Amino acid sequence: MRMETIEVQPLFDNYHRKIAKVDLKFKRYLYSQINWKARMIGIKGARGVGKTTMLLQHILDNYEDIDQTLYVSLDDLWFASHNLMELVDWADRHGLSRLYLDEVHRYKSWSETLKNIYDNYPDMGIVYTSSSLLAIDNAKVDLSRRQTPYTLYGLSFREFLDFEDVAHISPIPIETLLRDHVKQAMKITKNLKVAPLFEAYLKHGYYPFYREVSDDFPIRLREIVSLVIENDLPAVENISYETLLKVKRLLMIISEHVPFEPNMSELWKQLSTNNELGLRMLYSLDKAQILSLLTSKTKSYKYLSKPDKIFLNNPNLMHTLCPTVEIGNERETFFNNQMSVAHEVKFPQKGDFLVNDRYLFEVGGKNKTFDQIKDIPDSFLAVDETEVGFSNRIPLWMFGMTY
After folding, report:
1. What gap in Å lies between CA 287 and CA 19, rounded to an integer?
2. What is the per-residue pLDDT for 108?
3. Short-list 58, 56, 57, CA closest to 72
4. Residue 13 has what pLDDT?
5. Which residues lie below 8 Å from residue 291, measured CB to CB, with a gap of 6+?
6. Domain 5-152 class?
């Protein structure tokens, strides 16, 4: 039996309430990179980085009548008594040619359903998101031939300055940064005090929702971490309650020692687990952008190898989860987080980070020297507490300008 319009009204009511609060002033870096004309678009990313806002902004930008399309979140209670194919059939009959589907990993057979929509409704376009990187990467049906995939990361330091409306700077490619960092830094700092803004960013600037929640930011971020472990992991892994407790314990151990250079046998002993399950837990948290695993070889999610160093994904997580935040660890976490978005970052034999198998970096304070990486070609210092650098000494904050 075909669904009637009155049954869809609750979805439109929720959609209208959400879109009424959307501001078009600031758009994430990915917004202009997406081919919005593609018939099926998948946008994955960590919880809280702004995927929902980006969908609603695109609707406001492109539909004079917003009811020519529909945004729905698939964790809506409406789907307890209805299914997505019924909604697609209703939308197709009523002339809607595109649907925006949020939180698809919360829908039991999401990948199979998207495949059926694509194959059976050739005039219907789909833009979908998932807060769980785990679900997207472990889809039961291969959507690669049908979809155009994208990943949204948290705010860069550059975007944070734009979001705060204090500076509007175009992304600086890594090659330009390494070559012209003095000129670029002088231009940026001419009318801007970087240090206090950088400090604020490290504490709360990676997740755009910080502006909504203010002093409650650490509480909200902890809730997000719990949701990933308690809801997202079980959605894609055959995982027991006991293993979930081990994942939480694992995160607690790492948070107390980041950056963590693991003794794997000792770590698995503390968790009462084995190497296979332990590595699966680590790599799952890495894909969910809670941890960041640094390896000396190209990281693979198919062939899990021992990481050489384990970071929390970003400094905001450090300030939320760590008992104390050591400044050297915070600096390395920031560098690793910002550079990993568009570049391959590895653990080198000398120095702290190897970027794109070419550029070697040491990260430290303003008095950091080249002693550890002297005479190595393409080696640089990323130095904190510095507004403008010199030669191969580059201010640490500038590595937040690359996306």
Report:
1. 29
2. 87
3. 56
4. 98
5. 251, 254, 282, 285, 310, 311, 312, 313
6. alpha beta
Calpha distance 339→173 (Å, rounded): 11
pLDDT tens per residue across span 124-148: 999 999 876 666 655 667 787 889 9
Closest CA to 9 of 78, 64, 92, 68: 78
According to DSSP, residue 4 is labeled P
Strand bridging mode 125-130 / 291-294:
unpaired
What are the extents of the domains in the chain? 5-152, 159-400
Checking DSSP bridges between strand 359-364 and strand 353-355, what pairing results, if any?
antiparallel
The terminus-to-terminus CA distance of the chain in angstroms comes to: 49
**Alpha carbons within 13 A on the beta-carbon side of 335:** 29
Distances (CA, A) of 303 to 82, 193, 266, 276: 39, 45, 22, 11
Q: Please state which of the ranges 24-33, 136-145, 278-287, 370-379 shows the lowest mean pLDDT.
A: 136-145
pTM of structure:
0.93
Tokens of 293: 């695993």
